[in-house]
Write a structure and sequence with these properties.
alpha+beta; 4-stranded mixed sheet
Length: about 210
């Protein structure tokens, strides 16, 4: 009987230690995600639906908005400057998206806003961002119920000439400059705690 109690106490103690370690790891991961989120700005385009036409329209809107913003954002030295540029151009961004929708012969409404968005774990090139809240330029086409597209707008990991889907070495170095060493290695690594980069991933299917 005494031996059984000892074993029971050992098991309870081990479970408590395990719960404590899991709690500490969860807290660390949460803080890491919040730190990373505070240093990047993402771009998010939501299609009206998953129909072939709506998904193609989503990419056309992405391309048009990306072309509008690429030059303006080229001079953004930090996230705050990027945010100011986006806020100053929200009407222009919306008008650009609406023009594309009209050119396609559709009448979907478009919303464009800089807001906090819940993202699941996302991978962009070699980089994986953890799930959590991130500030993002969010363009919603129509009902916004279709498959979405996203990338990292600041630091610029979306605009590389006319190519939006390639995360080149220069983009990786820009990310390294923004994040500290631990954050960068977390985003770059794969495993249980995946963290992916996408803010100006304009031309990439999730």
């Amino acid at each position: 009987m005494r031996k059984g109690k000892v074993v029971w106490y050992i098991l309870v103690g081990m479970n408590l230690i395990l719960l404590l370690l899991l709690s500490l790891q969860y807290g660390r991961n949460l803080r890491m995600q919040e730190d990373i989120a505070g240093k990047v700005l993402r771009f998010h385009v939501l299609a009206n639906s998953d129909s072939r036409e709506d998904q193609a329209l989503k990419l056309a809107v992405r391309d048009a908005v990306g072309a509008e913003l690429a030059e303006a954002l080229a001079g953004a030295g930090d996230r705050e400057a990027c945010e100011k540029i986006i806020n100053a151009n929200l009407n222009r961004i919306k008008a650009t998206a609406e023009r594309v929708v009209e050119e396609w012969g559709l009448d979907y409404e478009v919303e464009a806003a800089l807001e906090e968005v819940d993202f699941p774990v996302k991978t962009y090139g070699d980089y994986t961002f953890p799930a959590g809240k991130y500030e993002a330029l969010r363009v919603v086409i129509g009902e916004g119920e279709g498959h979405n597209w996203w990338c990292v707008m600041y630091p610029n990991m979306c605009f590389s000439g006319s190519v939006y889907e390639v995360v080149d070495e220069e983009a990786g170095e820009k990310l390294r400059e923004v994040l500290d060493e631990e954050e960068y290695e977390t985003v770059l690594s794969s495993g249980d705690y995946e963290v992916r980069l996408k803010c100006l991933d304009f031309l990439r299917e999730p």
